[in-house]
Write a structure and sequence with these properties.
about 65% helix; about 325 residues; mainly alpha
């Protein structure tokens, strides 16, 4: 293990005041000798200051932000595939922390500051451009460490939707999206797990990830994962994913929104297997047979005869 790899995990703890006195000297000595690690330490300090200054939005503001994000993700899901993540590289593991913390700062900014509401006496966090500047510094530091093509291919950061424009004075204007690969272990019910599951359910680039996410939502169904499952159940192009989402929701038909969505799948889905599974879920939950019958008969759909036979069998048992 290199000196950098040994010291990198300690920088965040040092900024938080959690490093023993005996370990501070060697840590700072390494930072003086290593420019990349010195930048890392400065970045941790900047991010800690950002987190300390950021106001906490109230529940209503967070719900408003959540709704806007879900609408945007849903609108973009069908038009652009996310860039595949690349394997993580230990040398610049700090970049993942930077990207996550900066994203959290941007969320707090849009929820609390743009709305013009913050607790009395709290300082304004950096504006959007200031947050972007910190991220660009992290990207530049990562680029400095990429000595060859192999390093670039294994970089923590991945760029997509790249466009370049030559400027008149030996400069290039870059426009791109950036993602980073993370490996973390979280409580099953944590908000991060719920966010990742919701994003995975709406990711058009990986059917496998969406299918796995439908299985994992059984750990805990939050409002955002419920909404993502509803979108997947109604609109996902993969029958397997739609069935997985239906399975994840079928035990929660006491929720009127979920019951209505399952009835809509029974009425509108083109796949007979999907409609039969929806019928089974609704009948098992003792949903009003008249509602089920109306959903089947409202318009001719493939497999209507099989559904009528299945429904007749349920009617006899009820």
């Amino acid at each position: 293990m290199s000196d950098c790899e040994r010291h990198e995990p300690l920088f965040e703890a040092y900024v938080a005041g959690e490093v023993d006195e005996s370990g501070i000297g060697p840590l700072l000595a390494h930072g003086r000798d290593c420019e990349a690690c010195r930048r890392l330490l400065e970045l941790h300090r900047d991010l800690a200051a950002l987190a300390a200054r950021a106001p906490q939005p109230d529940a209503a503001e967070l719900e408003a932000v959540e709704a806007r994000v879900l609408r945007r993700v849903e609108g973009r899901a069908g038009s652009r595939a996310a860039a595949p993540a690349r394997p993580a590289r230990g040398r610049f593991a700090w970049a993942a922390y930077a990207a996550a913390a900066l994203a959290a700062g941007a969320l707090l900014f849009s929820a609390g500051i743009a709305a013009g509401r913050r607790p009395p006496g709290t300082a304004l966090p950096p504006s959007g451009p200031a947050i972007a500047d910190q991220l660009v510094r992290a990207l530049r530091a990562d680029a400095v460490g990429n000595r060859g093509l192999t390093d670039v291919a294994d970089s923590r950061f991945t760029y997509s939707d790249v466009s370049l424009r030559r400027m008149g004075d030996d400069r290039v204007a870059l426009d791109f999206d950036v993602t980073t690969h993370l490996h973390v272990v979280e409580r099953a019910g944590s908000e991060l797990v719920q966010d990742v599951l919701a994003q995975a359910l709406l990711d058009p680039s990986s059917t496998g990830a969406r299918l796995k996410a439908t299985e994992m939502t059984s750990l805990r169904l939050s409002r955002k994962t419920k909404e993502a499952l509803l979108v997947a159940m109604r609109r996902d192009p993969s029958l397997a994913v739609r069935l997985g989402a239906l399975s994840a929701l079928s035990g929660r038909l006491d929720d009127p929104e979920i019951e209505a969505a399952v009835l809509a799948s029974l009425r509108d889905d083109d796949a007979v297997q999907m409609r039969l599974t929806a019928l089974d879920a609704l009948a098992a939950h003792h949903v009003d047979p008249a509602l089920i019958r109306d959903a089947i008969r409202v318009k001719p759909r493939p497999g209507g005869e099989a559904l009528e036979v299945r429904l007749a069998g349920y009617d006899k048992r009820l």
